[in-house]
TrEMBL record, chains A, B:
Family statement drawn from the similarity comment of this UniProt entry: In the C-terminal section; belongs to the class-I pyridoxal-phosphate-dependent aminotransferase family.
PROSITE patterns, per database record: HTH_GNTR
Keyword DNA-binding in annotation: yes
InterPro entries: Aminotransferase_I/II_large, HTH_trans_reg/aminotransferase, PyrdxlP-dep_Trfase, PyrdxlP-dep_Trfase_major, PyrdxlP-dep_Trfase_small, Tscrpt_reg_HTH_GntR, WH-like_DNA-bd_sf, WH_DNA-bd_sf
Name used for this protein in its record: Aminotransferase class I/II-fold pyridoxal phosphate-dependent enzyme
Taxonomic source organism: Citrobacter telavivensis
The entry's keywords: Aminotransferase, DNA-binding, Pyridoxal phosphate, Transcription, Transcription regulation, Transferase
Domain HTH gntR-type: residue ranges: 1-69
Keyword Transcription regulation among UniProt keywords: yes
Gene Ontology terms for molecular function: DNA binding; DNA-binding transcription factor activity; pyridoxal phosphate binding; transaminase activity
Amino acid sequence: MTRYQHLANLLAERIEQGLYRHGEKLPSVRSLSQEHGVSISTVQQAYQVLESLQLITPQPRSGYFVAPQKAQPPVPPMSRPVQRPVEITQWEQVLNMLEGHHDQSVIPLSSGIPDVSQPSLKPLWRELSRVAQHNLSAILGYDELAGSLALRQQIARLMLDGGSVVNADDLVITSGSQSGMSLALLAVCQPGDIVAVESPAYYGTMQLLRGLGIKVIEIPTDPDTGISIEALELALEQWPIKGVILVPNCNNPLGFIMPDARKRAVLALAQRHDIVIFEDDVYGELATEYPRPRTIHSWDIDGRVILCSSFTKSVAPGLRVGWVAPGRYHDKLLHMKYAVIGTNVPATQLAATAFVREGHYHRHVRRMRQIYQRNREMYTCWAREYFPCGICVTRPKGGFMLWVELPEQVDMVCVAKQLCRLKIQVAPGSLFSASGKYRNCVRINCALPPNEKHRDVMQKLGEALKVAMEEVATPGVLSDS
Amino acid sequence: MTRYQHLANLLAERIEQGLYRHGEKLPSVRSLSQEHGVSISTVQQAYQVLESLQLITPQPRSGYFVAPQKAQPPVPPMSRPVQRPVEITQWEQVLNMLEGHHDQSVIPLSSGIPDVSQPSLKPLWRELSRVAQHNLSAILGYDELAGSLALRQQIARLMLDGGSVVNADDLVITSGSQSGMSLALLAVCQPGDIVAVESPAYYGTMQLLRGLGIKVIEIPTDPDTGISIEALELALEQWPIKGVILVPNCNNPLGFIMPDARKRAVLALAQRHDIVIFEDDVYGELATEYPRPRTIHSWDIDGRVILCSSFTKSVAPGLRVGWVAPGRYHDKLLHMKYAVIGTNVPATQLAATAFVREGHYHRHVRRMRQIYQRNREMYTCWAREYFPCGICVTRPKGGFMLWVELPEQVDMVCVAKQLCRLKIQVAPGSLFSASGKYRNCVRINCALPPNEKHRDVMQKLGEALKVAMEEVATPGVLSDS
């Protein structure tokens, strides 16, 4: 990080913490230069960054002032999906999107890729290089079926942060959260079974359910407090539901953290109806609050919560290291791992183990929590600035996703196609529903560093949205063009 | 490799090639020492190795002679499994066996682990270390869904050796053959479907079918020429079979290579009955014959052969790099990969790509073909020497597995339990059947270097077998003990 970026971050933090209030005058360039032992031009650059982020405003001949707090756009209301089991489609759209991620010229605003450019990841690839040179027999041979014991021990320690007390033998390493969730579903469900999901729900999970021939019932979900327990209860009374997939911490795509009371309530409901909770904690470590929020798994007493998580979002996707705490389904899930997937890559497991053991993991996650918080604020600010009026935006409690709801008439699937020509990829909300809801919504990946390039992308997205709204308002223009 | 080992290998090769005939006198120690420019003691050590391998015999005051050729034990007859679909069990035994593989004190005669101690693998981990240092964005991010393009290009080139003409877009990278086969089955079958297999069949495949709720019908298979096409045809006429899983090249566990005419016949049969052939080629590159045998896939004209392979046996299990050529099921299989498994580890794919591209792969495989041939001969020689009379032993055309059939009354499941106490693990034949056949058979991994330690293990196995036979012959002794 350059000096001016460092200084800009520091000042932005102070503004957030309220040390400099809205409308208040900021220190002069000269005094900051003295305070931090940096050049005048460094301070000027830092102030320019903050200005471009609209955190401060210059006033001619008076210096810089903290910008007045703008009204936050409202949060989207509780979702209202179709209340019956449906089959999942949308694979073509997901596939197109995935293919775009590997075109270097495309900006993947649609993706779930975390920021892997931070220097706090350096020890990770140093470890990978080291194991490649010094652990030959381990990296060339077969891994243990449950995964590296040393890694499972480290993960058991990490899970204490979320309140879960497990030991290494209770864990099964997988090649990411997706494969963990797929093993969990394979261990519990048969094709034709019904599983409940939050609505909207991550499209990867939806496609997994489709792949396994499982039907979903989408449950109304509040962008602030999570799945409606009342609606889930109604569904459980009406349909033979096998389990419910929840992302209670830093939900994807909505960003909420379920309050503890609601986590316990949903667990009690699961116990009453004897269903399984598939808990996806993949973003849980990226919660802004500290200590991190508890998992539903931490209150589980009869092994009905299957917790799936990974280092994919918190460290790096390329590790392909995830884990499952399968509770009472341990043996069944281990068999499924052997049968369907086999063992994992030892090299990345060894590197991840060292990364956690030596304390690099906690340092990195601490840093990413702050970075993603800043990013989300910046992207929210841009959405407010560039997007049309009448939008709703989530206020995520962690992770790096924003969910934007546009006026009913905007069709994000069409907008996404137009943006493809500009080499911008967005994830239309319809991917997050099996019943074709959320065509007027879009999920935005805020892990992309909030620089000029990405500000420009957000501006273009905003323009496309405005055009879409005008076209709908005057459909004649559309058919002429 | 030390000098005397090198010399011993050279002489063993000459004996095999018939340059020195059985019963013929070998050159004197002195003349060999001069010919090869090595010390007298080096030649003496080399001769001692060959003597211990029973390739040569010393005659007092006359020197060394090539040992007379011993009668080969007969090959087992065609298998005769139950001719109806059955469900698969045996998971407990497989799990116990897998757990033993990670106890360093246990000799895994049961495993499918290749020899990864050869120096020709050195460039592989050098590449892995290099990519960890120089390809950060690639190794930390998400891989392409179909797998690294550069790797797929290299694999398309390799597949030409087996007669298959594909391009990179026709291939999907998986994390090994097992996950490739599982995706193939998920793409084609539903739970309750019936799939035909060779009998005996690899226990990993059997457990995969069990995991997916697929029933198997075991087809009689000849240890020399492979699956009985007549029996398969009868089964196809009688049952609604979806496909057949075949390991036509260097079969596991029987070691045969199906003659080309039979490969084409089974493909024609599949076409007539409109079924899928799942072809497992994981040992195909380790065939002794050169050029390597053709795949059934190479004759496929309508995309009904799904070829699965990997670097697991030919290079190293720890890479977790396999591939599928899914033919007409490409799109379905790619969806299944996204849904059930997700993307693969980029680092090991990059290392494997460089390993193939720079020619290290072909060098390594050439070397391993010879080593495994030597090993199989040595293990066969030990089986003849130490095992009871009346055994049948396969004569594998490649790979590193021996299949030994003992007299009907020997129960290898019991013998395996007894051997556990001696820290020796063997794979009883019953694991290779869904209907409880082959309890009197055992599969032996000849990839374990044929040294004194492993000779000793084979000797102990032989003793246990002899005891088992005597116990059956005189059951009173057993009940008294």
